[in-house]
Design a protein that fits this description.
Elements (H helix, E strand, L loop, with lengths): L1 E7 L2 E7 L9 H4 L29 E4 L4 E6 L6 E2 L4 E7 L2 E6 L4 E6 L6 E2 L4 E5 L1
Antiparallel strand pairs: 1-2, 3-10, 4-6, 4-9, 5-8, 6-7, 8-10
């Protein structure tokens, strides 16, 4: 007997398979087995929570337009940016999206780090 774990439509099933040699079929294989009760899938391990978000600083806050993962942060507090400069790259639905500065100014605060997952509307950067 071999024990296998098979996932169908996101539900994991533990099954036992008996290998039969030649044309003979064993009695256990001929009788249909009762379906095994599916085990509840293990909850995925949650990533470490980032530090609690800070209150936005004075200036214009750039929020995430969509949920995604921060691939790259190209600025740091104190940098000067011009309207249209790329602030960070956000991956959403397997596409890389450049998040750009809406105006000229000094980067007051950066609220995210590379690898962080953000929701739509999450504060990313404040430009003063």
């Amino acid at each position: 007997m071999k024990n296998l774990k098979i996932t169908v439509n996101g539900v994991a099933y533990d099954v036992q398979v008996e290998e039969v040699g030649g044309d003979s079929v064993s009695a256990a294989a001929a009788a249909p087995a009762a379906p095994a009760a599916p085990k509840a899938p293990a909850a995925p391990k949650a990533p470490a929570a980032p530090a609690a978000p800070k209150a936005p600083a004075a200036g214009e806050t750039v929020n995430s337009p969509m949920p995604g993962t921060v691939l790259d942060v190209q600025i740091k507090p104190g940098d000067y940016v011009k309207s249209g400069d790329t602030l960070l790259v956000l991956e959403a639905m397997k596409m890389e999206n450049a998040i750009v500065a809406p105006k000229d100014g000094k980067v007051v605060e950066v609220y995210v780090i590379k690898g962080q997952t953000v929701e739509s509307g999450t504060a990313l950067v404040t430009i003063g």
